[in-house]
Amino acid sequence: MKTLLWAEHQKLKRSKVLWIAVFAVVMVSLTVFLQGQFTYYDKRYIDNAFWYMTAMQSLGGIYVFPAIISLLGSYLICREEQDDTLKSLYLIHVNLSDLIGVKLIMTGFFSVVLYVFLFTVTLVVEAGLHIHLLSAGRVLNFARIYILEGICLFLAVSPVIAVTYRLKKGYWLSLIFAEIYSFLSLFIWQSKLLFLYPITAAFCVAGYYETTPIQFIISMLSLLLCGAVSLMLLYRLYKRF
């Protein structure tokens, strides 16, 4: 397992996906900052403490970061076949379950790190704008929400990763699928499916929305089902190779 983790880590270091993720964080940060310059009753949005943290979380979580997480996961899983290394791994008797597990662990870890990086950026901006208005309690609460959202969005987009591998058309296709998948959540936002649709369910579990215990359980089950279905599908596809 440690060897597989090291190998996947080395693969990531050689990829351009990490730089794409950094670029995405920078662009979303600038976009939200510029959006905050608009005024409402003669007061800029960004003048409100924690507005920037809230806007970054919602904008990035809908339009950008699910696609980035899906892209990285598809890159890790699809490259074995695209580089024709999967046969070699079978020849040295690599455990199939370990191989799939390591790739998903790395994708989930990347998702959390991405959101920790995003939270750090937003905290620096908030501190620069409203250092005297920040409270430790609210900052820690936002940190919790960001980390949970990273985990939950990984589960939500895991079916996209599995479907992309199934189609065998290249890992970049997952970027398009994830964007469509995320964009559809805009039509779910005000409906009763808010707690069931995986992307919006991720916000519910993370704490972005206030939920009843029943709604929270529904959202959690939706995300766990995404993860379970993706794991079974990926295992069967690898085994069929």
Number of strands: 2
Structural class based on helices, strands and sheet pairing: mainly alpha
Q: Give Rg in angstroms.
A: 19 Å
Distance between the termini: 21 Å
Mean pLDDT comes to 83
Write the element-wise H/E pattern from the N-terminal end onward. HHEEHHHHHHHH
Shape: globular
Major sheet, described briefly? 2 strands, antiparallel
Helix content class: over 70%
Strand order of the largest sheet: 1-2
Strand content: under 5%
How many separate helices?
Answer: 10
List unreliable stretches of 5+ residues.
none
Structure in words:
The chain has 241 residues and is mostly helical. The protein has helices at residues 2-14, 17-35, 51-82, 86-91, 96-130, 136-167, 173-183, 185-188, 198-206, 213-240; strands at residues 39-40, 43-44. It has a two-stranded antiparallel ribbon with strand order 1-2. α2 (17-35) packs parallel to α5, α3 runs antiparallel to α7 and α6 (136-167) packs across α7 (173-183). It is globular.
Summarize the structure.
With 241 residues, the chain is mainly alpha-helical. 78% of the residues lie in helices and 2% in strands. A two-stranded antiparallel sheet has the order 1-2.
Keywords for this structure?
mainly alpha, two-stranded antiparallel sheet, single chain, 241 residues, globular, 10 helices, 2% strand
Furnish the topology, listing elements before pairings.
Elements: H1 2-14, H2 17-35, E1 39-40, E2 43-44, H3 51-82, H4 86-91, H5 96-130, H6 136-167, H7 173-183, H8 185-188, H9 198-206, H10 213-240
Helix pairs in contact: 1-5, 2-3, 2-5, 3-5, 3-6, 3-7, 5-6, 6-7, 6-9, 6-10, 9-10
